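We were asked to recover a plausible sequence for a given structure. The inputs and outputs are reproduced exactly as logged, with field labels preserved.

PROBLEM: sequence recovery
POSITIONS: 326
GIVEN STRUCTURE:
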């Protein structure tokens, strides 16, 4: 497993406040990695350390194979200067990016291209491609001040991709957008990943993360509470999954047949409906359906409620906060 971001006991303090507390984070190359946490959890501080805008007080951070050491030693900033070229492999869009309203979209990208050291020919080739990729063709010569919030987010993502990075870091890319804008950004992130670019997305919009991410890390008060694939993290929730079944006519044979299944922990009957508690996170509706049919039942409706990312997030954060207030 090749890592593009790896932190070890990363710590950042602001006076008496510890914003990032011994954070261990691993982001695999080629993934879309969601970085989740409530407001004030330390997400933006962590990102600013990763991109070199802040220095940590303790711990280490390795990005694209280059290790940057924390601590308040005099050599830290020099280390960043020496590794400036390697950091050109990172694209970054901050939370709620603010661009000069008097510039056109294409002008903004041209300025950023110059800052990256791109030649005029490189800029002429790259900027139109990005304009098309983010869906702003025909609007590149409009003033940014006339852009909607969604368009401003898209031009922000374009500037993050301008230097053909290996890693793109997006801090709350869907913040403040309407549903249409959120869908547009979601599809754009997926397209970026299809180009082979690793995407690290900080967000508190759990539904959005579930739609696009392959891996997630949940943090609270600067500490990682869970970090794994989306599927594994979603399966962390304790407590049984629930299957709701409605049959044309209920019988004791149907109830007994369902209770006999090894993964069923409890069955509750209400009229012609059963609420079945199961001890697995796997989809077992096929097995349940077979047993009901063998018992002579006719299924009218069946659904299963399993834990999702929001359930896990709420449980982990709530437990962490309870533990730290006791």
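RECOVERED SEQUENCE:
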């Amino acid at each position: 497993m090749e890592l593009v971001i790896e932190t070890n006991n990363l710590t950042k303090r602001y006076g008496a406040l510890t914003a990032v507390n011994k954070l261990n984070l691993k982001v695999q190359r080629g993934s879309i990695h969601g970085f989740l946490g409530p407001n004030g959890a330390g997400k933006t501080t962590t990102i600013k350390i990763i991109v070199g805008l802040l220095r940590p007080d303790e711990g280490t951070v390795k990005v694209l194979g280059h290790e940057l050491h924390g601590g308040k030693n005099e050599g830290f900033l020099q280390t960043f200067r020496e590794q400036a070229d390697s950091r050109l492999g990172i694209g970054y869009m901050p939370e709620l990016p603010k661009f000069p309203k008097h510039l056109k979209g294409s002008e903004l990208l041209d300025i950023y291209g110059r800052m990256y050291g791109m030649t005029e020919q490189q800029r002429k080739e790259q900027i139109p491609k990005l304009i098309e990729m983010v869906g702003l063709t025909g609007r590149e010569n409009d003033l940014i001040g006339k852009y909607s919030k969604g368009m401003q987010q898209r031009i922000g993502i374009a500037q993050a991709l301008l230097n053909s990075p290996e890693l793109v870091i997006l801090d709350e890319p869907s913040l403040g957008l309407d549903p249409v804008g959120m869908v547009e950004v979601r599809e754009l992130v997926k397209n970026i990943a299809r180009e082979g670019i690793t995407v690290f997305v900080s967000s508190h919009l759990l539904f959005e993360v579930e739609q696009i991410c392959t891996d997630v890390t949940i943090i609270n008060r600067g500490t990682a509470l869970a970090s794994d694939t989306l599927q594994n993290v979603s399966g962390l929730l304790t407590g049984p999954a629930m299957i709701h079944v409605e049959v044309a006519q209920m019988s004791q044979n149907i109830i007994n047949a369902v209770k006999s299944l090894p993964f069923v922990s409890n069955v509750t009957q209400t009229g012609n409906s059963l609420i079945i508690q199961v001890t697995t996170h796997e989809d077992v509706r096929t097995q349940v359906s077979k047993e009901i049919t063998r018992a002579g039942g006719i299924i009218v409706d069946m659904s299963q409620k399993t834990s999702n990312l929001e359930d896990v997030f709420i449980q982990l954060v709530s437990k962490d906060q309870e533990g730290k207030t006791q």
